[in-house]
Known about the structure:
The protein is α/β, with parallel strands linked by helices. The protein is 47% helix and 13% strand. The chain contains 24 helices and 22 strands. The protein has a 9-stranded mixed sheet with strand order 10-9-8-11-12-13-18-22-21, sandwiched between helices. Strand 3 (230-231) and strand 4 form a beta hairpin. Helix 3 (49-69) packs across helix 7, helix 4 crosses helix 5 and helix 14 (340-351) packs across helix 21. The protein starts with 10 loop residues before the first helix and ends in a 25-residue tail after the last helix. Residues 1-28, 290-295, 311-318 and 658-673 have low confidence and may be disordered.
Amino acid sequence: xxxxxxxxxxxxxxxxxxxxxxxxxxxxxxxxxxxxxxxxxxxxxxxxxxxxxxxxxxxxxxxxxxxxxxxxxxxxxxxxxxxxxxxxxxxxxxxxxxxxxxxxxxxxxxxxxxxxxxxxxxxxxxxxxxxxxxxxxxxxxxxxxxxxxxxxxxxxxxxxxxxxxxxxxxxxxxxxxxxxxxxxxxxxxxxxxxxxxxxxxxxxxxxxxxxxxxxxxxxxxxxxxxxxxxxxxxxxxxxxxxxxxxxxxxxxxxxxxxxxxxxxxxxxxxxxxxxxxxxxxxxxxxxxxxxxxxxxxxxxxxxxxxxxxxxxxxxxxxxxxxxxxxxxxxxxxxxxxxxxxxxxxxxxxxxxxxxxxxxxxxxxxxxxxxxxxxxxxxxxxxxxxxxxxxxxxxxxxxxxxxxxxxxxxxxxxxxxxxxxxxxxxxxxxxxxxxxxxxxxxxxxxxxxxxxxxxxxxxxxxxxxxxxxxxxxxxxxxxxxxxxxxxxxxxxxxxxxxxxxxxxxxxxxxxxxxxxxxxxxxxxxxxxxxxxxxxxxxxxxxxxxxxxxxxxxxxxxxxxxxxxxxxxxxxxxxxxxxxxxxxxxxxxxxxxxxxxxxxxxxxxxxxxxxxxxxxxxxxxxxxxxxxxxxxxxxxxxxxxxxxxxxxxxxxxxxxxxxxxxxxxxxxxxxxxxx
Length: 673
């Protein structure tokens, strides 16, 4: 096991820091010197000191075990027995400790894994002594000397283990205490209360314990069985109903919500209680961020609207084998890689270790930034940035011939509904012609797997963007085949994507308002980008014959309530500090979205949050004819003919008219696209 890459203080620095440790006994100077010497030994500054100390502990433990066994009445035979076995125990135990690499561990950083290694090193010798005791015949020659009594074997093991662990623990405690004193000297320590004494709370308490500027007052937990218990060295002081009393009585500066996955209702109640006191409130990162290794649990942050929406992390553990089989070691190409969904696809695919990953987009700035980010995360990964427009067929054919992808995830699309209502020709050229170019190139290049990112707006579409996504689903059903596994994945709004409602609300609140909502009763589904992408990859691993997969979006949320919650999170009052303005529905905007047609049957897959709609047949001749007419109208800029063709293609497309003046600027419309 390699030595931890942690800066080791010099002997002078270690000795200088130790007198700050409070020692209440009269022998403070002697105690400080002993601890300082132990720390120098534990940090490797005194050569061979660690084995020497461990050896002394082992010999003394054996001696004390003999004394305990014979009640202090030692005869000449007992002394001979000690002299015979002491070298054997010392040599064998130190040899196994060396094999386990225990002497490479720095004592002041001792942890559970170190303790397990020490136990593993000591237990083998004890097991050998027990076997010798039980298997060696009691009437055989030298039995008296070789068969140690159980009253010596067991105490010797326990004393050796406790002694070896104790010296390391003393060094660790002394170092932590001196570090806290050094960091907090000259400033008041922030007093924090941890809300949640579960696994995340324990992890957070361990990480904060060494932070000199913080003092953990205690835990709050709603589990009545945990009240007054001590967890990770921190007492559980009460439940959520006691938060106001505890904050005031204990002079708490900050409440840290130490629950990685928290339902929306529970988080709202906690925030309401904290605002009423008031006290600063932060929260640990989301579970998927911690699992992915993006942040440490101690990197607490302000509560965000994504937390209040209550989207739990996607449970992808069960589908990980399918995901690895579909993407691990493959040459993968992601179109639209510079967008919100495309870039997150690339981040998560990188974790699955593809042989090569191509990032394709026509926006060179976003591809440059993503390329730099991914190379920083995985310097050895084979990443290929590609700048190209999916509307240009020849360019797609050239890149596919050069890169030879095995898996393609098609996320490139125009998604902003109001803009596409104004520019329907561009929506068709990019979302339909681009889709056809990529799909046909995939078939010709022998791509193994193709995943199309669709939208809930493809169901009974009332806007051009949704209609083009529905055409994309039909294209996949009509053109896929030839051994290529393919699927469409349909889901709703993702929080934080470019052009979505949440970043717009943030900008409007920063400007002082007003926050604009198109209708007081409009509702939308919401999902975090990492969760959506995790489920897209799982659904893509199930792809077979151009099925449509629908992601479980949870319950829809009123956009007006979302606006109010975001204003309150900013520490302001809706309608008093920040006005909310109702602007009226925009062209193509529904009051609520749908995830499936009435004629479509949702079938549960092996994954809880993914449903499947079986592939339906498409009349290829008439569909291809309508497709050519649609693309020709878009190329010619014939908008009326384009809309007429879309309505005649059997998509369920019925345009809606505006209920508000069309002159309202786009940057003031809270459209949940």
